[in-house]
Structures are given as structure tokens and as C-alpha cells.
Amino acid sequence: QVQLVESGGGLVQAGGSLTLSCVASGSILSRNAINWHRQAPGKQREWVAIITRDDTTTYADSVKGRFTISRDNAKNTVYLQMNSLKPEDTAVYYCQTFVRGNNYWGRGTQVTVSS
């Protein structure tokens, strides 16, 4: 059973920074692409970033240049460094991966950016 656990969310002022963590059970993070998504109140879930098995990264236009996704295989952890945060970044942030055809999500961590 794959488990993903996010942490690191919180309340921050606009222009501030937060780093989210996604810890996975086992060593799946080193063998699978990991996505970060977010869902703001009243809105559909939005894809944010991906890091592939070979550490290629891609970002949504809305966060490009401000967010950085990275991986520490030794810690089975993927990070999302978020800088220059804006009120519109307020959302619950989720990590997600596919393992052997199954789709796994964490429970999310709340990020609130005050203006």
C-alpha cells in the first residue's frame, strides 16, 4: 500500500515563502514521477508541478519562476519550494503519483496567503 503524506503548509503573508514536503512509504519516489496539485475553495483541482524519474521538472504557468519541485531519494521526500507567494496561491496542496497503474494521493496540506 502506497501512502503519501504532505506537510509544511501554513499561513504566510504575500511575498513570503513556504516549503511543502511529501513523504512516501517505501522507495517509490525514486522510481516514479511525482506531481503537486492544489485546490482552492470553490475551484477545481489544479495541477502545479511534476518531477519525473530522471528529475525533469515542469510547472504550471501560474507558478513558473516562483515554485521549485525537488526530490531527496534518501529521505523518500519530494519538496515544493514556494516563493513570492500570492493570495491566489491559497489552496490545499496535494502530492500524487501513479504506481503500477494505481493513482495515489495524499490528504493535502493547507496553504493560506494573506494580502
Describe this structure in words.
The chain has strands at 4-7, 10-13, 18-24, 34-39, 46-51, 57-59, 67-72, 77-82, 91-99, 102-105, 109-114. With 115 residues, it is mostly beta strands. Strands 2, 4, 5, 6, 9, 10 and 11 form a 7-stranded mixed beta sheet that branches. The protein has a 4-stranded antiparallel beta sheet with strand order 1-3-8-7, with no helix packed on it. Strand 5 and strand 6 form a beta hairpin.
Mean pLDDT, to the nearest integer, reads 95
Give the proportion of residues in helices: under 10%
Q: Output the number of helix runs.
A: 0
Alpha carbon gap, first and last residue: 40 Å
The Rg value, from CA coordinates, equals 13 Å
Q: What's the overall geometry?
A: globular
Order of helices and strands: EEEEEEEEEEE
Largest sheet: 7 strands, mixed
Quick structural overview:
This protein has no helices and eleven strands.
Topology:
Blueprint: E1 4-7, E2 10-13, E3 18-24, E4 34-39, E5 46-51, E6 57-59, E7 67-72, E8 77-82, E9 91-99, E10 102-105, E11 109-114
Parallel strand pairs: 2-11
Antiparallel strand pairs: 1-3, 3-8, 4-5, 4-9, 5-6, 7-8, 9-10, 9-11
